[in-house]
Amino acid sequence: MAGVRVLIVDDDGEFCRMLMTVLGKAGYQTAYATSIGEAQKLAEEFHPQAALLDLRLPDGTGTDLLGDLKERHPDCICIVMTGHTDLDSVLLALERGAFQYLQKPFNQGVLLSVIGRAAELLRLREIKLAKEMDESANRAKSDFLANMSHELRTPLFGIMGMVSMLLDTEPSDQQEQYLYTMQNSAEALLTIINDLLDVSKIETGRLTINSAPFDLTQILDAVVELLSPRALEKNIRLVTNLDPQTPRQLEGDAGRIRQVLINLLDNALKFTPAQGKVTIRIGCEEQAAGKARIRFAVEDTGIGVAEEELSRIFDKFTQVDMSPSRSFTGTGLGLAISRQLVELMGGSMQVDSRLGEGSSFAFALELVLPADAEPQLPPPAAKTQALGIPQFALKVLVVEDNVVSQEVACTILEKLGCTVTLAIDGWQAVRLCESKSFDLVLMDCQMPGLDGFEATAMIRRQEQDDPATKIRIVAVTAHALAEDRQRCLDAGMDDYLAKPATLNDFRDALDRACTALGRA
Asked: Is the pTM of this model over 0.85?
């Protein structure tokens, strides 16, 4: 590691200059002193990274100087030199942090070998420090995005919940139009929040790919069902083409495949004008040894991309047209996330586009052909439904400190037939669970004083004497990372809802609770 600063301290000035010559030719920066006092002053200016210290100096010992250097320059690597066979002094120096010792006289090869090992140690330290700083920065960014997600999701839960309830009050046509506009805006904001979380998880290595059996037809139907209203609104023809020879039963991460297809289809609809056409093509390129290579493509007749702009189309936070007057808005995250997700699943994404003619985004994935596994697919995005006839008769304790979230949760649960009790913090929840009987607790995780995790732990301790009194506890939290869900389950909670939870999310949680309680 050339350029390392080496301080030489020996009472023999000629010997010091000789060492400086040898080390200088090897690319090291050097300075020398002939006493402890001179070395201490020089060290403040020179900031040595390594030091060669004679054990016998006119105003003290090299061991004393070693201790001073270690205190003032803790990262400095010290090597002691001795012309005597005083092993006790050498051992004392090693005990106080000396890296190595040199027995005088020594040749140039030995000197350069020892200094070289010290330089390599410094290099490894720098690499480790840089890695730790990088990991720390990634953790800080990830924690910031997770916390911001919580702060944004909580009020968004209130907005979406209130809109859903207002739509159930038989508003006028004009009011209904306004409410649907609010709902669409809130859903667009939620998409941005989810994109930011995905970026954070990918960059910090916290996003995992899960494999399970699924039905390819169900994925295609879910994607089309979600985005066909937008195609109809823009008067765009939406076409699906699923090759009949393509196997339907596959094994992979259905949720992530669906997410990529939604991103690509949403992008195609955004950049395709009225009377245009968007096509989803799915086919099998190869099938052998229990695996199938499935190709997915989304093609459009939109505005296209100039060839010189294609190289940066997958850059995060980038759109081809970044001017203030651009016609299409967005974060520029959808394509970047889609490509990274495809790569995490072992595939690659290609784009073919011509300005003014349209674009085609395609990716291929090697998926397993399950033998007898039952297909499993995460349910499609829930559509807003009107609150109907109460279906549940559960005694529910809602633990929530946010006033708007309290009103939303309690109103939805009451209209679903539940008897609701409200606790505004963890302490009140613990006391109520001790004095009253509940079928279900909806527990907010982040609350001042006693948070949901601590409250759950206290409730579980109360139940130890009588396991029959165990209450089903469902986490309701604005934290939406996979590890947040696992933390809730590890804390003793039975289920998990991520804010903003929709009406169907609440309904599904109550369904699962009824099943667990034997009331299905």
From this structure: no
Whose tokens are 């090992």? That residue is 117
- 3-state SS of the chain: helix, strand, coil percent to 5? 50, 20, 30
* CA–CA distance, 132 with 138 (Å, rounded to integer): 10
Strands (E), 341-494: 348-354, 358-368, 395-399, 419-423, 440-444, 472-477
In contact, 31 and 4? CB cutoff 8 Å: no
Give the type of residue at 220: L
Q: Is the pLDDT of residue 194 over 80?
A: no
Best CA proximity match to 447, nearest among 398, 413, 494: 398
Selection from 72, 35, 30 nearest residue 50 by Cα: 30
Beta-sheet pairing, 395-399 with 419-423:
parallel
What is the DSSP secondary-structure string of 407-430?
Answer: HHHHHHHHHTT-EEEEESSHHHHH
Other Cβ atoms less than 10 A from the Cβ of 352: the count is 14
Contacts for 316 with CB less than 8 Å, ≥ 6 apart: 199, 332, 333, 336
Q: Determine the Cα–Cα distance for residues 388 and 156; give it in Å rounded to an integer.
A: 23
Sorting pLDDT into bands at 50, 70 and 90, what band is 480?
low
Residue 335 tokens, joined: 């394509």
Per the model's pLDDT, the better-predicted residue between 297 and 136 turns out to be 297
